[in-house]
Amino acid sequence: MLGLVVPAVLSGLTTGAIYALVALGLTLIYGVLHIINFAHGSLLMAALYTALFMNLRLGLDPYVALPVVVAIFFCAGYLLQRYVIDTFSHGRDANILLATLALSIIIDNGALYLFTSNTRTIDVPYAFEMVEIGPAFIPLPKLVAFLAALVFAALLWLLMRHTRLGAAIRAVAIEKRGAELMGIDVKHTYAMCFGIGTACVAAAACLLLPTFYVTPQVGYAFVLVAFTTVVLGGMGSLGGALVAGLFLGVVEALCGLFLGETLGQIGIFAAFILTLLFRPAGLFAPRVA
Amino acid sequence: MRRLGPGEGVVGILLALAAISPFVLPSQAWIGFAVNAVLISVLSIAWNVTGGFCGQMSFGHAALYGTGAYAAAMLQLRLGLNPYLAGIVGIAAGAAMGGFIGALAFRYGLRGSYFALVTLAFAEVLRILASSFEITGAGSGLTLPFRPGLANLQFPDRYAAYVFVLILCILALAVSAAVKGSRLGSNMVAVRENEEAAGAIGIDAFRVKVVAMIISGAIAGAAGVAYLQIQLFIDAPIAYGSLISVEALLGPIIGGAGTLLGPVVGTVVLHIVGEVVKTGVGGAPGLNLVFYGIVLLLILRFLPNGLMGLAGNLRWPARTASAARSAEAR
Amino acid sequence: MLSARGITKRFGGLLAVSDASIEVAEGKIVAVIGPNGAGKTTLFAIMAGFLRPNAGTVTFRGARIDGMAPHRICRLGLTRTFQIVQPFAGLTVRENIACGAHLHHAKRADALARAAEIAAQVGMERMLDQPAQDLTVAGRKRLELARALATEPKLLLLDEVMAGLIPSEVAEIIPTIRRIRDSGVTILLIEHVMQAVMSLSEEAYVLNQGRIIAHGTPQQLVRDPQVIEAYLGHGAAERLHAGHPGAQAHA
């Protein structure tokens, strides 16, 4: 029994780290803009394709391509927020939600048109290398993804706590008007935030690619898990997203072990709905009477 | 009470012309397109009751649509129920699912992004459940045996199917108009505009929102039943897929959320755009949806009140005139 | 008609209202006055069901209403307005008022007709088809009043309907409120504009730091040293008496 559970938990943790990384971007955007970015999964899919083609056409290893993809998607995120989402929604909350939905429709179906629905993968020499951890064998790329995701989370934390930009982002998140009066460029800060959030997704894509596949629909599955992670961790909480991401990875792995693959996902959604209903501020949020 | 203005009149006439066009210009492609557009219009009308009148934006109306379709299909296949009875139960099941999701979500005060997310999650849970169990046909879906005839609520050709969905659409519009012109409709709008202020003037916001979900669920369930009776096949991605949820909200947003004809106008225009793209570029998958997304963005940018907002501009002078007349009459 | 006894409300460590009791008799215009942050709006919110008190009871026409949902209290005949007006911005004046009128009129036609009558009562008959978002501050205050009135309350709680109005607008709205009372609606109001309190109300309570510190006719209250101190600070009453007695009228 334990022989099955421990590997499942470890494998769940590695998946969870990726969930956490995707969710970090989403929760950062939510925490500051107070909207849910429905295009988040689509951007993950786009980043996966970018890394895929860098590998197929240029022969770049995903890990090598990571800084480039991250840079590209940071810029893309910045521009999308500043010149598409903000402009097209007139800054109204309901419209921002719909604008991100429109973007996701465009990106998803654009990918479907350009790349067809074929599933694609890349070949890397280390794909099947295993690392022995206690009773379990973990694929090397998954271990790398796990560690790298933690590093990114730490970097993000440093950025938020110890840089001018981080201070500006936190100020805008708490009180947009006040921040504006203090001379902070709110539109720029929003766009930086969206850019950083998108960069997280790009990093997740590069870490994911060696052991995963790419289809135009791949983002959808991830974004639902990311929503769950964000809600579970408390919308806008970076630390919460990290813990919740790891937790959900484990829940999914265990549900998969005991209930089978498809029903395993139910565990995640059940957690999602229950949290939304009973603790909409997140599991780790202090309870307000 | 309020008469239709010239803007709404023009839109109504255009819609009526569009509705009879398949009979004037018979073509297999055109009628197939029309059946689909009218069916999605019914779903849009359903979304508009909650999203438009009541201001609760759902991203998971597939949960209601799919429940109607699955309930009707299972009752016919597993219990051999008469299709009409099964259809009525399907509508009731959609209403019940709407009431259930609404009661849960609103009991805990979910609004805005949170409500959008929880509805999406419910649709997703139902999709996974429907694709996992034998009773719902699991991965292979449910197929009704082809037995055309009025007694079986099945249609010998697409023209008969079209008449059926057209009647359904008119009924849905009638329900929507009745709601909009009633105390309930006024309460819904008050809740949409400001829930706290609505409470202060005696409106039970929770009840109003749940009732909106029930009515919306019934209409969406009817659309699901209609799809089943026309296509004779459903599976989890068709019934509960995110595409249905997206299509449900695109029509009202583009046509004008909260207006009576907006959902239909939006859906029809959107489908025409999709069709034009298809004929222009060939039937490549995805491309029409890319244009749906672009149309949505453009509407948000340039017509935040939707196409009916544009028609509403026509109405303005005439409306004050009629208001002045009714003031004189007293 | 309305009786609030021993109302206490805490927000975390802050005691917003402490052991406050108020009685409102039928047919009266009663005012609650007090400096900013005295807890007036909190007290109103408790009486209208928007907040639950930590202690105390509210009885309205013989029924306990503390902790009851706002819409149920409204249906019993107690309607409040908001200090920060909350019009249904996307609707016209007529539609706004009709939303309130629907409480007792099921048919849309009846509700709309009733809305026009009530608009005339508050002097808005010319603005019926204006979108609420285009109204001036004074217009919005009137709309807030009209929408509450449309629910046909027995008791109307008015939260600073005159704040932000210029003197001529105040002078216009005072007779409107008096007419409403004369039509049979009891009125409890929170007010900052002393001119309004003095000329409108027969009875006033003074709330300071969450406590009722005085109760009487407005004329009595403006001479009460405790009240003057609450408004002008410690020792103010003595200084006023020593200096120029005429200054009391400004308090």
Number of strands of chain B: 2
Stretches of chain B where pLDDT is under 50 for at least 5 consecutive residues are: 315-330
Briefly note the CATH topology name of chain A.
Answer: ABC transporter involved in vitamin B12 uptake, BtuC
- Backbone shape of chain B: globular
Q: From the 3D coordinates, which CATH architecture of chain A would you assign?
A: Orthogonal Bundle
The profile of the biggest β sheet of chain A is: 2 strands, antiparallel
- What would you report as the Rg of chain B, rounded to the nearest angstrom? 20 Å
β-strand percent of chain A reads under 5%
Looking across the biggest beta sheet of chain B, what order are the strands in? 1-2
> Termini of chain A, distance in Å?
42 Å
Number of helices, counting only DSSP H or I runs of 4 residues or more of chain A = 11
Strand content of chain B: under 5%
Mean pLDDT of chain B, to the nearest integer, reads 88
| Number of E-type strands of chain A | 2
- Name the overall outline of chain A: globular
Task: Please specify the SSE layout and strand pairing.
The complex is a heterotrimer of chains A (289), B (330) and C (251).
Chain A: H1 2-33, H2 40-58, H3 62-89, H4 93-115, E1 130-133, E2 136-139, H5 140-162, H6 164-174, H7 176-181, H8 186-208, H9 218-233, H10 238-259, H11 261-278
Antiparallel strand pairs in A: 1-2
Chain B: H1 6-24, H2 28-53, H3 62-79, H4 83-107, H5 112-130, E1 142-143, H6 158-180, H7 183-193, H8 195-200, H9 205-231, E2 233-234, H10 236-240, H11 242-255, H12 262-281, H13 287-302, H14 306-329
Helix pairs in contact in B: 1-14, 2-6, 2-9, 2-11, 2-12, 3-4, 3-5, 3-9, 4-9, 6-9, 7-9, 11-12, 11-14, 12-13
Chain C: E1 2-11, E2 14-24, E3 29-33, H1 40-47, E4 55-60, E5 63-64, H2 70-76, E6 78-80, H3 93-101, H4 108-121, H5 137-149, E7 155-159, H6 167-182, E8 186-190, H7 194-200, E9 203-208, E10 211-216, H8 218-221, H9 225-232, H10 236-242
Parallel strand pairs in C: 3-8, 3-9, 6-7, 7-8
Antiparallel strand pairs in C: 1-2, 1-4, 4-5, 9-10
Helix pairs in contact in C: 3-4, 3-5, 4-5
